[in-house]
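Milestone M4 deliverable, item 7.
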Amino acid sequence: MSQVSDQSRAGAAQQPPPLRLSRTFQARPQTVFKAWSSADHVKRWFSPKTFTVSNATVEMRVGGAFDVCMRSPSGEEHWTRGTFVEVTPHTRLVIDMHPTDGSGDPLFRAYTEVDFSDVLGGTRMDIVQTYTFIDPLIAAPMVAGAPEGWRTTLDKLDREVVSMQGEAENDIRSVVHATFRVERNYDAPVTRVWTALTDEAAKQKWFSGAPGRWELLERRMDVRIGGCEHLKGRWEGGVVSTFDAIYHDVIPNERLVYTYEMHLDAKKISVSLATMQLSAKGQTTTLTVTEQGAFLDGYDDAGSREEGTSHLLDALGASLKN
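Output delivered:
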C-alpha cells in the first residue's frame, strides 16, 4: 500500500498546474459561443499561429465529439480527440480533450473549462485547462508551450468573431435596422452631466474601452453644430474600433443630436442617429439616450450596441462621483 501511495504522489508531482487565461472580444456572448459550435468555425481558428486545421468534427451537445486535426507547416498532422462534458448556451463549455500521438494513443488529458460573460466592450472568455500527463516525456514540452499556443489561437478567434459580424471577405450586402432607448438618473446637477458629455477631458473618464483590454490610439472632439468627434482604439486581440461622429443639434444642458459611423478595422459596420436629452430636477439629472442604427453587410449586432451604451452610461455615472 505504501508503494502505491508513493507512486501516486510521484505521479501527482509530475502534473503541471492548470493554465488560466482570459480574452475580451468585441461581440456578444452569443457570437463568441457560436464560434465554438461548428466545424466550419473551428477550422478557421482552433490552432496556433502557422498551424491550420485540416479536419474537425464538432457536435455541440453533452457527449458530442470535439475532434480537431491540426496540420503543422511541414505537413505533420496532430489530432486532439475531445468530448463535450457541459454545454450551457452562451455561458459555459467544458470539453474533455486528449491530444494523441501518431498511433492515436492519448498523450495527456486537457480538461478545458470555458466561461463567457458580458463585460464593458463585449464578451470576456475565461479558460481554465487542467492537465493530466499520460506520457510525461512527450506531453511536458507540449504543455509548456500551451500559453503561447493559446495566445495566437485566440488571436485567430478574435478575427473569426469579427468575420462573423460582417468582416468576412464576401459580397454580403444587407442593412438591419434597430432602435433602442436607455435612461439613467444621476445624483448630479445638469451642468455637470452636460460637461461629462461635451468636455473632452471629462468624457475621457468614461467613454472608452475596457481598462487593460483596450488601448487608446486617437481621440478628439469638438461639440458644436457641424463639429466632429473621433475615437480610435485597439482591443486586446488586435482589432481596431473607430467611432466618428458629427453633431447636428447642440442645446446646452438640454439636448445633443449627432450621427456616427462605427468601423471594426477597415470595415464600416454601422451608421446611427443618436439623441441625448437631459432633464433637470433640482440637483438630479435624467439622461435619455435614443438611438436608431443601420447595421451593415452581415454585421451581427444582436443587441450589443444597446448593452454597450448601458455600460457606458453606468461608467458616466461612476465618473460623476469622483
